[in-house]
Design goal:
This protein has about 170 residues and is mostly helical. The protein is built from 7 helices and no strands. Helix 3 runs antiparallel to helix 4. Helix content is about 80%, strand content about 0%.
């Protein structure tokens, strides 16, 4: 089983988006610069994963599959969530982003639960490389979070953040 550059970057982006989404979801502070910087990264990863999926047709060779419906839904919900945040509609933002992340969790389970898929085969046939990929995902996630923390300290608070703090 071969990994094309497209498939490898798709899997890597999805694998980084998974813990970043969890970080956003379970982090107690919302709406600050760190949340926004990590969120922008997460949105970019999610859109990349969704759009690249249209060129990955290995489940049903040469054809689209049911997973591509999830890609369309994700493009819509991530976009709606982003626009809701920009408008200040936090309830809609939360619903769309949580739903998008849960869809990613479901897709991940599907990608690792089926033994003939790339990820389980990779783990069994090339465990050292699979471990290295896992470490790369963790390091990339940590770099994004650390960079967002560092950058957020250098940015001035927005008016809404000042109101939330007082």
């Amino acid at each position: 089983m071969t990994w094309s550059l497209l498939l490898a970057t798709h899997a890597f982006a999805a694998s980084v988006a998974l813990p970043l989404g969890a970080w956003q979801l379970f982090r107690p502070t919302k709406g600050d610069h760190q949340h926004r910087l990590i969120g922008r990264t997460w949105v970019g990863l999610m859109l990349y994963v969704s759009f690249t999926s249209f060129w990955i047709k290995e489940l049903t060779p040469g054809e689209f599959s049911a997973i591509h419906i999830l890609s369309v839904v994700t493009i819509v919900t991530v976009s709606l969530g982003l626009f809701a945040a920009i408008r200040g509609d936090i309830r809609s933002h939360q619903g769309n982003m949580i739903g998008s992340w849960l869809g990613l969790v479901g897709a991940f389970i599907g990608a690792v639960a089926v033994p003939v898929r790339h990820i389980p085969t990779f783990v069994v046939t090339e465990p050292a490389q699979a471990f290295a990929a896992f470490v790369a995902v963790l390091v990339t996630t940590a770099v994004v979070v650390t960079a967002a923390k560092a950058l957020s300290g250098a940015l001035p608070q927005t008016e809404s953040q000042r109101r939330m703090a007082s």
